[in-house]
Design brief:
- The structure is a homodimer of 355-residue chains.
- Chain A is built from eleven helices and 18 strands.
- Chain A has 355 residues and is α/β, with parallel strands linked by helices.
- In chain A, the strands form four sheets. In chain A, strands 3, 5, 6, 9, 10, 17 and 18 form a seven-stranded mixed sheet that branches. In chain A, strands 13-12-11-14-15-16 form a six-stranded parallel sheet, with helices on both faces.
- In chain A, β15, α9 and β16 form a beta-alpha-beta unit.
- The radius of gyration of chain A is 20 Å and the shape is globular.
- At the A-B interface, α2, β15, α9 and β16 of A face α2, β15, α9 and β16 of B.
- β16 of chain A pairs antiparallel with β16 of chain B, so a sheet runs across the interface.
Chain lengths: 355, 355
């Protein structure tokens, strides 16, 4: 079958690879759509980061590059292994793209998203979503019901936002600020809206992204250029938001998020950082602010699918392009790198759905 | 009356100052004992920090240096103003040494310890505990009952540890690590023990402080020299402690605390930082760790007094010296600066209790 594999920095190829084999307890998904993630772009430009290099096989898959990429995907079940129940050929499904050890302190506590050996399907080896088919353990398959599989490809990024919102503890009617309106900031804002948060503020300087945030239906979009953001947010909310989300990975943005919550408020760090930032810990102390890291998702897929199914989140504004697998590098990666602010998600299909 | 006032860096004098006047709703405390805090030492060596300099009066007191110092004190009620009920002359009391605005978002939420204009009695002007008498609003006076006033002088620092432990959310039977066995680390360890935490680990390199920690009755005292502390703590606890307390204000110590909690664990930052540290935010993300700032105390004095009254915390190991007010600088500040590891609290009395 065809699959897009990462061979090294700047080197992604559409290769012919062996068909995956469905083992006991496993499900084969015929991929309809797979979104391109910011993580994929980082691997392409600066990697291998999460992808295992030749001298360090992933502890679970045992594999090294080249690996099949793509982890934001949905499709139709095309085969099931022995012992699989509740999922049948022809079902539309989204995939929670994990490899976990099942034995570490995190797995034992049910926090498998911070498994000590965590790997992602589409980064750590074996299968991925930029391929015609993908085989995964049944555990990771989530039925989409009547939802279409292009919307199903949005489940994974939306689950990241949903998880961060859940971790924040924000209540219905509460107040929230999202720093950065890239893809993760946007899905976080959408998840906040869906949760019934009373006031959602997005902070973003780029014009195209500000418009995207307005499209998600937030209450305020603040351009941080030339204003004191914490002061503006305190003015808007009578003293600060309940929760803030750092979706940028920039020192000054994290400081702004910490300064924007009310005393005792919570900042959720959703960004993955490319460097070690300077953090004024006294800002945490003097307002008793709480900063918590959020990684991906853990038991959030069913709720996330329900948000889309019940119309609480509209996936349409997040889908800004559709391409075939052969066009992945030029029409996908290069397009996102050169026009990152105009795009949210470009969906990639290995099927002949596009002329 | 006699009072020790801060006139500038390195310049604390025993001055003759006007007697304080008891207004309506206020209580005059005849000070028996007042401890010297690390904050006092910082003011002496590097200040003014919290003490208002000549060009920036404190927003609540309106005062600038010279100010009376001392905020860890207890004594006997020597006069009460009109309208004061429930406190009478002769009562032993500890003082919660705050000035708060009562109007800001923090005060409105009951989190007066992070009041936007917060000041400390003994730093922000008006009265202080290194004086014969001190007048405070009744709100800040906490009855000691049968407890002696030397033990009463330990209430304030112990309340800092009690508050941090409360904020951590640690449960009875849980596990905790305290990084740094200076005075605040020791009272935090004592508060953890008193709360029934199952395993308390203290991390401290200095020999004298390690012995102090053993005196508080902790389970393990780890010398971080030459070992991987997070690994050692994970080994001791089967994957990491529930909560860790940063009581040092050192970048590597904060990193060690973050690395020592289990996935989803909590780090309480108790230290006040003299610089802006580098914090590896990805360590928070990849283990979904929660870092919360803790400042002083808020509604913790009655519970803290109960810990001492009920024998759950023994104040004796914390009292390593007693001096008269006249000896404050040489026998107190200089002694603590030059022999900081041998000392915990030196108590100062303005009364002729010492020959």
């Amino acid at each position: 079958m065809k699959a897009a594999r990462f061979h090294g920095r700047g080197d992604i190829r559409i290769d012919e690879v062996p068909d995956p084999v469905v083992g006991p307890g496993q499900v084969e998904v015929s991929v309809d759509w797979c979104g391109i993630c910011g993580t994929d772009l980082h691997e392409f430009l600066e990697g291998p980061i999460f992808i295992p290099p030749p001298d360090a096989p992933h502890p679970i898959t045992g594999e090294t590059l080249p690996v099949v990429m793509g982890h934001e995907f949905a499709g139709v079940v095309s085969a099931v292994g022995s012992g699989v129940t509740g999922v049948a050929e022809g079902d539309r499904v989204a995939v929670e793209p994990y490899y976990v050890c099942g034995e570490c302190v995190a797995c034992a506590a049910g926090r498998y998203n911070v498994c000590r050996k965590l790997g992602f399907i589409g980064l750590a080896g074996r299968d991925g979503g930029f391929a015609e088919r993908c085989v995964v353990d049944q555990r990771w398959v989530h039925p989409l019901g009547e939802l279409s599989t292009d919307v199903g490809a949005i489940v994974e990024p939306l689950a990241v936002g949903y998880h961060a919102v859940r971790l924040s503890g924000v209540r219905e009617g509460g107040t929230a600020a999202v720093f950065g309106a890239g893809p993760i900031g946007l899905v976080t804002a959408a998840a906040l809206r869906a949760r019934g948060v009373g006031r959602v503020i997005v902070v973003e300087p780029a014009k195209a992204r500000k418009e995207k945030a307005e499209g998600v239906g937030v209450d305020h979009v603040l351009d941080p250029t030339g204003i004191d953001v914490p002061e503006a947010i305190r003015d808007l909310t009578g003293g600060g938001v309940d929760v803030a989300f750092e979706c940028a990975g920039i020192d000054a943005v994290l400081a702004g998020a910490i300064g924007s919550v009310h005393p005792g408020g919570t900042v959720v760090n959703v960004a993955i950082w490319g460097h070690v930032p300077a953090v004024n810990m006294n800002d945490l102390v003097l307002s008793e602010v709480n900063v918590v890291g959020s990684l991906a998702y853990c038991g959030d897929h069913a709720d996330t699918i329900a948000l889309l199914r019940d119309g609480k989140v509209d996936a349409a504004p997040f889908i800004t392009g559709r391409i075939g697998l052969e066009d992945l590098v030029e029409g996908g990666f290069r397009q996102l790198i050169e026009h990152k602010e105009e795009n949210v998600k470009i969906l990639v299909s290995p099927k002949d759905v596009i002329a």
